[in-house]
Every structure is written in structure tokens, then in C-alpha cells.
């Protein structure tokens, strides 16, 4: 059985890596300006090719692809951390209202700065989103003290998300026209408009948080077996919970700050990865979630920008189409169990 498990793990990671590589090249090739595979290799590895195609790939497509890869992985890992924390398979940043809280604070920050004639830098956006994530998470934690039923907790999270979205819409209603346009484009969710500075900053934030989450693999494994067991294994439960909350909030805030609210990735991908690996061990699921989230978001972004080109769909709409059936399946199976 142990040998079979190792073969499954190796096969799963190799498959995810191959899919990721294939989608990266497919995304580079696809678009309003088609670039052949030979040209792609020439531009990437030999610094040759047509100058227009080279500018499109290096200035537009590669930053967008890397953003989808990094942020998709971050959102998936954030979802896995929340599912571990609440011991609920449908807990995620979008469902629990954390993404909506981040959206609200980012919207308020954007309106305030744009009203003063200033622009919000990436670091400011991340900090604003992080504050909003923590506020929403704080409300969810307060509710969790009163409500022990996990289904009710998820419903309360959804209600918090609706409240944050309603306040955001109310604020946008009284904003200037130019501010409304900027907010509307951002709030729909999109990986477009990324540049290399954005990619560098999100990579630092996400990979630092990912490394810290990876170091929490052992406490998470113990926590999955129950609080009493984890406490007997020497895990400081209070500190461990704070660390999980902070890491999941940082990851989801980074995604919201750069790409807007993106639905269902944080719920669907961790479930798919656990089904693929046939295990919930964090030391395996965390890297698998990152790769799976990257593959999922690259695939959805490819559909969003090519199916109805030149019209581009919001990434959140596409992720919902593919992610929602997974959530429904998980809920039905959980009900049967």
C-alpha cells in the first residue's frame, strides 16, 4: 500500500507539472495575435523573433500568465488552510466573506486616494486587502464561538460577504465616474494589466507565506486528528490558530489586491487535490494545491480571454462555472456520509 501511495504521489505531481507547462505555452501562444510554437521558443530562449511578438509576450502575456499561476496557487492554499482551521470542506476565502471584506477595504482605499488625485501602489493595496480580510475573519471567528454547526457558520460567512458587497456597492454609487470605472473593472476579477513589478511583489508575498505554511505541515497534521491530539503532541493551539488565520488572510488578500475577488478556487481545488492524492497530509496537499490552483486559474484565464475574443470574461465567472459543480458534489457526498 505504501508503494502504491508513493507511485500515486509521483504520478499526481508529474501530471500537474506537465499540465502547468502545457498551459503556460498555450497561454503564450493564444490571443488576438497568434504566435507559433517555434516563435515562442525563439523569443523565450534565443531572444529572437519578431519585435512586435516579442513585446506582446514579454510585456503583456508573460506577466499575466505568471500572475495567474502565483495568485491561483495562493488562493488554493488559502482555501486549504481555512478548511483545516474550520474542519469544513466548503470553507474558503470567497464563501466565508474574507474576499468580500478585502474587496471593501481596497475599494474604500482606491476611492479615497483617487479622490485626492493619487494612485494606490501594490503594497498599499495588499495592506488594505489584508486589513479587510482580518476584519471579515474576525467576524467569522466571533460567530463561530456562538455557532457550533458548520453549515450555519458557512451561511453566516456568506451573509458577511453579502454585507461587505452591499457596503461596497453603496460606496461606489456615490463615487466619481472615473472611480466607478476603475472599481468596476477591478471588482469583476481579472489577471489583465499585470506588469513585472506586480509579479515581483506578489511572488515575494506569496512564496514567503507559502514557505511558512509548509513549515506548519506537522502541526496541521496533528490538528486534523483533533484538538486534544494536537495538544498532546505539543502543539500550542492558540498560536497555531493565529498563524493559520494570518497566513490564509495574507494569501487571499494578495489575490484580491491584484486580481479582485475570485470565486470557488479556494474551495474546489483543495478538494480535487485531496481526491487525486487520496490523502489530506498537508506536506503533500500544500504543494499540490499550489500547482492545482495554478493549473486551474491558467485554464480559466485562457477561456476568459479567448472564447469570446475580443470580449474578455471576468475570471470569477469562469472559475464559478468549473468550481461550483465540485462544491455541489462535495456537499452531496458529505450529506450522504
TrEMBL record:
Sorted UniProt keywords: Cell membrane, Membrane, Transmembrane, Transmembrane helix, Transport
GO molecular function (one): transmembrane transporter activity
GO biological process, one term: siderophore-iron import into cell
Membrane-spanning segments: 7-28, 65-82, 94-114, 120-143, 150-175, 195-216, 244-270, 282-304, 313-332
GO cellular component terms, semicolon-separated: plasma membrane
Pfam families named among the record's database cross-references: FecCD
Gene3D superfamilies noted in UniProt: ABC transporter involved in vitamin B12 uptake, BtuC
Record-stated family: Belongs to the binding-protein-dependent transport system permease family. FecCD subfamily.
Protein name: Iron ABC transporter permease
Amino acid at each position: 500500500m505504501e508503494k502504491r501511495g508513493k507511485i500515486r504521489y509521483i504520478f499526481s505531481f508529474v501530471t500537474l507539472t506537465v499540465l502547468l507547462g502545457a498551459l503556460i505555452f498555450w497561454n503564450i501562444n493564444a490571443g488576438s495575435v497568434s504566435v507559433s510554437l517555434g516563435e515562442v521558443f525563439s523569443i523565450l530562449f534565443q531572444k529572437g523573433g519578431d519585435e512586435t511578438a516579442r513585446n506582446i509576450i514579454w510585456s503583456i502575456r508573460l506577466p499575466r500568465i505568471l500572475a495567474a499561476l502565483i495568485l491561483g496557487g495562493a488562493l488554493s492554499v488559502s482555501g486549504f488552510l481555512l478548511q483545516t482551521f474550520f474542519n469544513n470542506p466548503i470553507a474558503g476565502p470567497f464563501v466565508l466573506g474574507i474576499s468580500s471584506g478585502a474587496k471593501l477595504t481596497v475599494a474604500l482605499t482606491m476611492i479615497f486616494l483617487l479622490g485626492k488625485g493619487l494612485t494606490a501602489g501594490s503594497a498599499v493595496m495588499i495592506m488594505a486587502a489584508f486589513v479587510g480580510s482580518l476584519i471579515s475573519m474576525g467576524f467569522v471567528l466571533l460567530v463561530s464561538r456562538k455557532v457550533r454547526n458548520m453549515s450555519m457558520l458557512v451561511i453566516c460567512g456568506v451573509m458577511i460577504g453579502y454585507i461587505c458587497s452591499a457596503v461596497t456597492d453603496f460606496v461606489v454609487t456615490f463615487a466619481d465616474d472615473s472611480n466607478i470605472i476603475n472599481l468596476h473593472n477591478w471588482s469583476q476579477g481579472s489577471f489583465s494589466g499585470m506588469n513585472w513589478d506586480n509579479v515581483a511583489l506578489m511572488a515575494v508575498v506569496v512564496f514567503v507565506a507559502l514557505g511558512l505554511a509548509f513549515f506548519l505541515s506537522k502541526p496541521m497534521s496533528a490538528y486534523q486528528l483533533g484538538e486534544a491530539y494536537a495538544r498532546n503532541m505539543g502543539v500550542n493551539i492558540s498560536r497555531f490558530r493565529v498563524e493559520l488565520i494570518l497566513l490564509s488572510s495574507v494569501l487571499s488578500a494578495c489575490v484580491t489586491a491584484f486580481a479582485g475577488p475570485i470565486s470557488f478556487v479556494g474551495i474546489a481545488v483543495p478538494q480535487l487535490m485531496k481526491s487525486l492524492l487520496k490523502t489530506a497530509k498537508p506536506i503533500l496537499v500544500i504543494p499540490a494545491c499550489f500547482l492545482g490552483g495554478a493549473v486551474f486559474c491558467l485554464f480559466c484565464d485562457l477561456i476568459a480571454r479567448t472564447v469570446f475574443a475580443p470580449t474578455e470574461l471576468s475570471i470569477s465567472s469562469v472559475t464559478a462555472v468549473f468550481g461550483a459543480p465540485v462544491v455541489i458534489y462535495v456537499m452531496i457526498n458529505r450529506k450522504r456520509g
